[in-house]
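Hello,

Our lab assistant flagged a job as stuck in the queue for most of the afternoon. It eventually completed. Since we weren't sure the result was trustworthy after the delay, we are filing this so someone can double-check. Below is the sequence as submitted and the structure that was eventually returned. Let us know if re-running is recommended.
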Amino acid sequence: MVVDKDNEFLDFAPLLDQDSALEYSNEDEKLPLPQLLAKIIAQRGSFLDISEDRLKEEIENEQLSEDTAPNQGDVEMEGEPLLTREQLRSYEEFKKVKQEIVNSVHSALNESSLSLDFVSLLISCVRPAAGSSSMSPHLKQHIKIGSLSSDKVDPPEDTEKLQFDTSKVGRGWKLESLERAAANLKSSSLRLKEEVEKEKNFWSGMVEVLKSNEVITSMNMKNSKEVCVKYGYGDAGSTYYDKGIGILKKDTTTGDLFFENSAPAKEEKQDKVVNVRIYEKNGETVNLIGESNVEQRLHSFKEKKGVINDIAKARFFLFEEELFYQLLREAATLISLQVSAEEDKIVIDLHDEIIEITEVPPEEVHAPADLPSNERADLIQIYLRLMLYAEHKRNLDQRNIPPLALDTEAQSAPQTSLLSLIRPIIVYNRHKRTLKSVRDVLESIILNHFENDRTKTKEHLAEHLNIINHCNEPSARSKDPFARVSTPPASILELATNSLIVRVKLTSLFASAYSVMNLTLQNQTGSTVLDVTLNDVRELEDCLNWAIRNYDSI
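-- returned structure --
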């Protein structure tokens, strides 16, 4: 008889159901009250629908079903055919099969536990807390947490598609790199072209500065070396504190060379120019009769532009600054000669006129009015600048004098300035005024002798009066054009009469600006009748009147 293996366990279904029912009843009794109540509610519904009558009815129905159940079983048994022995399975075989199933379940449980421990050990390498929480106690005891790690390794796919994709990516990167390199080379070439243009402009300006005979040097400025230009007068003999050194810088935008003054100053200096004005004194009133033309000197700087013009402009204003500085220094020592000095003005009182030397900003410079002494004011300002040039030359010559030997006993005299700026103006003006007074004395004496006959007096003076100006000029004037200025002025007046020859030598002193008059009287034979030195014009007039009264008429 063939046994259907698929229905092998179907014969044990009633038995399994019976065991299952028993197990379920046993489990219901073991369930805690909350779970039991939940199960009852799930099977029977809410307790609100349960009543006493309904429960009694259900109990009666269950009793009737139990009484009829054995009878129905007999009927069914009688109707069913009897099973063979081969089809029946003993209870022991069923237990054996059940045990095999239980063992398989246990084996699966062990394998899942091992898999869980393996995964937990892997996780413990990255997250120790999460891995150890799911790890078994046995594994925790024998294996250190985090001792197992893993990495993801993708097997290489050596296929044509992968190679083709890789080559496409490589070509894309190469093309992108080439485009980037081309853009960088283009931008670098443009930047290099701009830098070359800037350097060209810078060095063109530098060559222009060199061609103009400017002195180029280098100097450390704020821990960096700068290209500088000397525009001052230090090498020409100037002792001014500002040596006149400017920086030649390159414009970062265009590369053009521009000039920047580097003189340290506590406050910003303002460019100023020296101006000369002449005033006439009529009693207490003072009238302007002359002013120098400074606008013409500044006009050349306004027309030209460039670094050469900036250097020349800085040199011009530096000279003007030094000129006024030297004038102020000298004016402070000439108070006894009627010279007063203020912050930006020097006033020289010359008895009948006033010379005013001021510093004027370029913005306030204007063309002078048409005045009679404008040319004289221009000459005075030219004279002041020439005298400063002469002072520089004298200082330069003194530097070239070799020093004395150390073993010589003779000591050199202290160096004193031979040239000055304002003092010669005062001394020569007073000398001229005194010379005129002496001539007036001689004219008054002759006029008194001719009984106020001015015609005869003029004729006699024109014929017999001889005036020699600056008679003591040194012979070195041909070599030194400033020899007259450095020499005290001296003049000689000679007047011939019938009985006497009057000779007056007038010498002015630089120290006091006063004049000394040496009067000499000679007779017709050439012998000296009188030789006396006088210090006042009135004394000279009295002496001449006395001498003429003691001799015959003219």
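-- support follow-up --
The delay was a queue issue, not a problem with the job. The result is valid. DSSP finds 13 helices and 14 strands in the chain. Residues 160-211 form the longest helix (52 residues).
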